[in-house]
Amino acid sequence: MCVLGLGLIGGSLMRAATAAGREAFGYNRSADGVRAAQADGFDASISVVETLERAATSQALIVLAVPMPALPSMLDHVRTTAPDCPLTDVTSVKVAVLQSVREHGLLDRFVGGHPMTGTAHSGWTAGDVGLFTGAPWVLSVDDHVDPQVWAEVMHLALDCGSVVVPAKSDQHDAAAAAISHLPHLLAEALAVTAADVPLAFSLAAGSFRDGTRVAATAPDLVRAMCEANSGPLGSSLDAAIELLSRARAQLAEHGSVAQLVESGHAAKTRYDAFDRPQILGISVGEDGWREELAAAGRAGGVIRSALPVLGSRG
Amino acid sequence: MCVLGLGLIGGSLMRAATAAGREAFGYNRSADGVRAAQADGFDASISVVETLERAATSQALIVLAVPMPALPSMLDHVRTTAPDCPLTDVTSVKVAVLQSVREHGLLDRFVGGHPMTGTAHSGWTAGDVGLFTGAPWVLSVDDHVDPQVWAEVMHLALDCGSVVVPAKSDQHDAAAAAISHLPHLLAEALAVTAADVPLAFSLAAGSFRDGTRVAATAPDLVRAMCEANSGPLGSSLDAAIELLSRARAQLAEHGSVAQLVESGHAAKTRYDAFDRPQILGISVGEDGWREELAAAGRAGGVIRSALPVLGSRG
């Protein structure tokens, strides 16, 4: 396996895959990161070309683990040096990546991925062999996806301790806007609102700390994920603004916030009771497998142990 | 000390005051709560009249620890049976309580209070002797406030392990709207928004869990505190809606959320670095003491050990 980018996610992936008995080598742009990885006993290089030549020779699975802005130049390298390798990514938006991969003519061997995990820290040293344990790892089941490549990435995610959530790229992005990008903007708005009120920071307790926790994330990271997903995020923002504006009007007119509070509590109760049934009985590669997996994912299903692959031995 | 209402806050107060060596007795409306308190060795009664007669005889400090809707009937009882006792409360809004106390002719001996603590649970059994440890406990320094009564409540709060934040009632309410009531409504709006997006609950992780945690609070409690503070909450809601709408427009027009994200991160950084200097050098009862304490509270100051009281011995 070949990991391009040895930051928090790429570095953790290298550790987790190695711990699972896989052979892994990687590239990192900064010499510091490469040295740190090597010092920890990992096979890291500062040359993207040499790394990709190795990948091409061994037909290794290539994992794009660079930030969104660095993706196009990485894809240039892949196209030039290792265009036939199976390819996946770990980026937090999926439609924009898919588009970039398509523009680079690399769609045939590509399966988009997104492990839903992370910390507020970054770089090789922030990595953690257990980062993926129990986390949902989204794998795209878009129309173009090749069953053999899909199965290969599924095995990687399961080896790292994740559960696999199959999803269409656009549905992933809509969900990510609602459960990750919108919460970041709400946290920022809460922090700014309170900062303008004398005494507020003095009295802040649990609900403020919870509500602003993710506002500590580096602004560049928040911008990168929000701005690369502007369409779905816009829709989520519209929905939230509409709910808050309606509550504001009802508070002014009737002195009540009943509607928002009751529907919010009901939604939270549904979320807390949300079940994740195991996806079983679908073979990767059978007729309609992509649609079936997408439907099972929408229903809350996750893959906890490898699904069979049609036409595979063993 | 006489505690009216032995739920989460009143029950914890009874435990904490007793542990600090104070004599405490209390009233609770439900027989179950009274029995549970008695079984734990506390002096609890189901008769509000008898409890207040004891308070009047011993000139005990009366703590109103009933929910907002039960307050007027409690104040009727206090006026009838124990009108000269020092009086405080632990309610999460201060202007509405002040108004109700004034209407009952009980202002002279009243100092509003609000310990900024709690859990998602309620009732005597949810109580905890350590609930107040380290928590900010707001004490109102409104113009009418009597220094002797104020000092008595200050000692109670310090005995329970809290730090005292002096504040005007209206400034408390504005701050509470921003750091407590607004976060509840944002959490409700986030839960409702995500509930409408297929796949969202499936992918929800840390930022969604943090952002919706307080949406688990019982709707009646959320409504009670929000609706009793509708003026300041309306202003906070307006500010948050305005910030989100501006971010929405900039995302649509320029593909950027830079302004909100950067100002949010800056505000969060200021909050995390927020210092709580100890308030020293002010004597309760000296000329202008209320204004001085209010200014010190706005500046982030807290009282960690008892301030001297003018005209007191010892």
Q: How many E-type strands of chain A?
A: 9
User: Which structural class do you get from the secondary structure elements of chain A?
Assistant: alpha/beta
Distance between the first and last residues' Cα of chain A: 21 Å
CATH homology group of the largest domain in chain A: NAD(P)-binding Rossmann-like Domain
Shape of chain A: globular
- Write the CATH fold name of the largest domain in chain A: Rossmann fold
The domain count of chain A comes to: 2
- CATH architecture identity of the largest domain in chain A: 3-Layer(aba) Sandwich
Please supply descriptive tags for the structure shown above.
homodimer, 314 residues, alpha/beta, Rossmann fold, 6-phosphogluconate dehydrogenase C-terminal fold, 2 domains, 6-stranded parallel sheet, 3-stranded mixed sheet, 13 helices, 52% helix
Model description:
The structure is a homodimer of 314-residue chains. Chain A folds into two domains: 2-167 and 276-298, Rossmann fold, CATH 3.40.50; 173-272, 6-phosphogluconate dehydrogenase C-terminal fold. Helices cover 52% and strands 10% of the residues of chain A. Chain A has helices spanning 8-19, 31-39, 48-58, 71-81, 95-103, 147-159, 169-195, 200-203, 206-212, 219-227, 230-254, 258-272, 289-298; strands spanning 2-4, 25-27, 43-45, 62-64, 87-89, 110-111, 113-115, 136-140, 163-167. In chain A, the strands form two sheets. Chain A has a six-stranded parallel sheet with strand order 3-2-1-4-5-6, with helices on both faces. A three-stranded mixed sheet of chain A has the order 7-8-9. The interface between A and B is large, with 96 and 96 residues.
